[in-house]
Amino acid sequence: MNPYVIKADKLTKQFGDFVATNQISFEVSKGEIFGFLGANGAGKTTAMRMLCGLLTPTSGTATVAGYDVYKQTEQIKRNIGYMSQKFSLYEDLTVIENIRFYGGIYGLPAKELKEESESLLEKLGLQDQSKKLVGSLPLGWKQKLSFSVAILHQPQVVFLDEPTGGVDPVVRRQFWDLIYDAAENGITIFVTTHYMDEAEYCNRVSIMVDGRIDALDTPGGLKTQFKAATMDEVFYQLARGAKRQAD
Amino acid sequence: MASVELHRLMKHYGKEKIPAVKDVSFSVKEGELFGLIGPDGAGKSSIFRMLTTLLLPDGGSATVAGYDIVTDYKAIRNRVGYMPGKFSLYQDLSVEENLNFFATLFNTTIQQNYELIKDIYVQIEPFKNRRAGKLSGGMKQKLALCCALIHKPEVLFLDEPTTGVDAVSRKEFWEMLRRLKQQGITILVSTPYMDEATLCDRIALIQNGEILTVNTPEQIVRNYPFPLYAIRSQRITHLLRHLKEYENTQSCFAFGEYLHLTFKQPHEKAVASVTDYLTREGHTGVECRQINPTVEDCFIQLMKTA
Known about the structure:
The complex is a heterodimer.
Chain A: E1 4-15, E2 18-29, E3 33-38, H1 44-51, E4 59-64, E5 67-68, H2 73-79, E6 80-84, H3 95-105, H4 110-124, H5 139-150, E7 157-161, H6 169-184, E8 188-192, H7 196-199, E9 204-209, E10 212-217, H8 219-225, H9 231-239
Parallel strand pairs in A: 3-8, 3-9, 6-7, 7-8
Antiparallel strand pairs in A: 1-2, 1-4, 4-5, 9-10
Helix pairs in contact in A: 3-4, 5-6
Chain B: E1 2-13, E2 18-29, E3 33-37, H1 44-51, E4 59-64, E5 67-68, H2 73-79, E6 80-83, H3 95-105, H4 114-124, H5 137-149, E7 155-159, H6 167-182, E8 186-191, E9 202-207, E10 210-215, H7 217-222, E11 228-232, H8 236-245, E12 249-255, E13 258-263, H9 270-280, E14 287-291, H10 295-305
Helix pairs in contact in B: 3-5, 4-5
């Protein structure tokens, strides 16, 4: 069995002459929290879309949850979770309706879904809010709920695209508590962020520059390698050299 | 003289009268770079929209450049530049057409105020015939800033100009703001990134529509009421749980590779005692030292007492 939940080898995506993602190679282990950093336009979104089975690569290989990103995209979608700040829950459905909707989409059987929804509401302390519209909840609650819904079906890996953008400093930390919980339960976390302190919370971090992965190590290892005191400095040293100006 | 002055400004939304801005008062001096800092939903955009006369307040009052935001809205509109959080230029017009359009609206020309935008505009000038919708995020932001400046405003309002922008581009953007400030423009900028607070002359921290404090970043940090410690060990994942269970812990939060810790009783032996406790719990390599708080530490502390 493949010991890696994600394995990419020279994965590349080209749009015409433009090489958005250029031969990236890396592995992510089960239960690992993997930080996927890079400047705007470095190619993160393209890479993530390939790994989620939403975009066919131009060349290279990759497997996610043991499935091939060219041929087994439907199986990939069933075995991953996804959340981002931009795409999360339906604002005009209630909390419980959102949970049932996403649980249903991810194929949870009705009985299991009912049990899971109750334990989820309890875990988040949202029992009294379950009939409230999601649109009326504070952003921090939405983000926590959205993450919990994305892992309701116990996926092997969850992709988080800037999950904490704009949330307050306390909720941001509570959100990371949820991430640690999920990782301890064996869910692999693949996360992008613009907060450099959050890069420190990851087991390993990769930094993309102009479509390439220019650095990949533990936060401590990267700081040693780049003789930097903080991850902010590491990022600045690498991203400053970028030639590309895109979004 | 105050360039922007808010006095108990209030705004509620919807039938349920949900308060978005509660009794907000502060003033911004002429030529100041003033930051409004808080998470999404804190009321930052509502305040900006009231000050730029796009939204009527339900209570309180405010002046911008000496004019009342309700009765003198026309005078204010001539004197302020506003860059909303969402990109709001014409996507189908080229870079140059957008800039010309905004110059014409204010009865001026690009040439007349070119000096003001020169530094920023030269970076996007090579693409002046490109449609705005086809620009990269960073270039869109620069164009929007040029359009907000082209009529030489007295006060510039920038609503979350750096949200979702990477750390390098954020740094560049703040350098542009410092240069603009040198030209004497008063700048109000909002951001959810606490680390940007130190780049402002003064800041207001805001949460749930209420101002937590207004001061210089240095003074806010100095006002932090407790000794603050950074602590770490080889088992960082268990460290937080163990410290939360510890009897002398007042607060404990993750901050990058360290946790930030305050004690209920910050006596001389507090550090030695917590180190002993953690060693008993099986931690190795415990490192604990007193540090200066960041604005984010202050924000967390003020949130709790609000």
